[in-house]
Amino acid sequence: MAEYELYCFAQSGNAYRVALMLELVGADWSPVFVDFFKGGETRTPKYREEVNEMGEVPVLRHGARRLTQSSVCLTYLSRRFGKFQTQGEDEELEAWRWMVFDNQKLNGFLGTYRFFRNFLPTPGDPAVLAFLRGRAEGALAVVDKRLGKAPFLIGERPTVADVSLCGYLYYPAEEFGFDIAATYPNVAAFLERMKALPGWKHPYDLMPGWPMAK
Amino acid sequence: MAEYELYCFAQSGNAYRVALMLELVGADWSPVFVDFFKGGETRTPKYREEVNEMGEVPVLRHGARRLTQSSVCLTYLSRRFGKFQTQGEDEELEAWRWMVFDNQKLNGFLGTYRFFRNFLPTPGDPAVLAFLRGRAEGALAVVDKRLGKAPFLIGERPTVADVSLCGYLYYPAEEFGFDIAATYPNVAAFLERMKALPGWKHPYDLMPGWPMAK
């Protein structure tokens, strides 16, 4: 059995953050496929009782520990491997600030928008889609401005906050209906920098469940 | 000048978390009123350049430090005052897990729902309102179940995660159009426990801007 197990599926940018981190730090890990789409597995009482009461992926198992929320998993892994860590309290708090912003406002809304646009049995309501995209683009503009000042969110080197930011940003433009990289050039340059890190992989190459079974 | 300054306004449950914490730990603090509604102050270039590039409240000033994101402010204050802290890494990560969930899924959606329902020049789109309320209620159900097992989110004593959870939950039921306390009894009992802590105050008694000027 691998040292780390990650409950995930290929279409989840939240799970991707942790899968990417596991690759970037060189962890011994294996995925546990969660059948989110066909089986609604995260909504079952069994999953909520035995895996995650929040009904979400990712879940990271390490020995007796079971961690959830990607930002928590990233923090844990950065400490264990001594990579992508922040230095001192000011940097620690700054990285957390961007991770919370990212979870709520950037990838939080962007991931939900993509879900409503692509993966519902019937297309999502246009007003809801417009709301979600508007919020996500507002957050993308904030981050694009930030990344015009330094190569990574809190300065010259990548930290947990940068791995978090990757979330949904490498998924194909057609899934969003607009080209994030073309609209937000500093975000695009950042994504290329992250892509150049040893161990980087695309979410569809890293987690099970893609392409989707018909 | 007070030791701590909090950029806030009475209707912001995100700012309330930090204002409440400042009261609960007995800090020397004063509010800085942010004219969110009439002046759109958080959207101005001046605010984004000089106060918070994320265009949000709360912002906590302490000496040369300027902290944003309520969960970061709560963590900082808990360390400075040695109150509402977690013990050890497992508790630390567990509290963070609930704060991120709260920010994205519970108070994140609930606060946006309340904003769309009450504070827009024209009422928010019904489909968007239904989406936001549905998400918020899903998260409330998760937390209600959790709080059926222990008096506070991570056990027997209140921590930063519990102060965060208070967010929008004390605002009047008519602002939501449904009674949170009546629907989620364990959440209701939790809110009474928090209310009993020395220093507790209602958001409308703690921050400037209420009642709103016509």
Description:
Two copies of one chain form a homodimer. The first copy, chain A, has 214 residues and is of the alpha+beta class. Chain A has two domains: 4-83 and 201-206, Glutaredoxin (3-Layer(aba) Sandwich); 88-195, Glutathione S-transferase Yfyf (Class Pi), Chain A, domain 2 (Up-down Bundle). In chain A, 52% of the residues lie in helices and 8% in strands. In chain A, strands 2-1-3-4 form a four-stranded mixed beta sheet, covered by helices on one side. The longest helix of chain A has 31 residues, at 88-118. Chain A is globular.
- What share of the residues of chain A lie within helices? 40-55%
Label the CATH architecture of the largest domain in chain A: Up-down Bundle
Give the ordered list of helices and strands of chain A.
EHEHEEHHHHHHHH
What summary fits the major beta sheet of chain A? 4 strands, mixed
Q: Name the beta content range of chain A.
A: 5-15%
How far do the termini of chain A sit from each other?
30 Å
- Looking at the structure, what is the overall shape of chain A? globular
Radius of gyration of chain A: 17 Å
CATH topology grouping of the largest domain in chain A: Glutathione S-transferase Yfyf (Class Pi), Chain A, domain 2
Task: Label the structural class of chain A.
Answer: alpha+beta
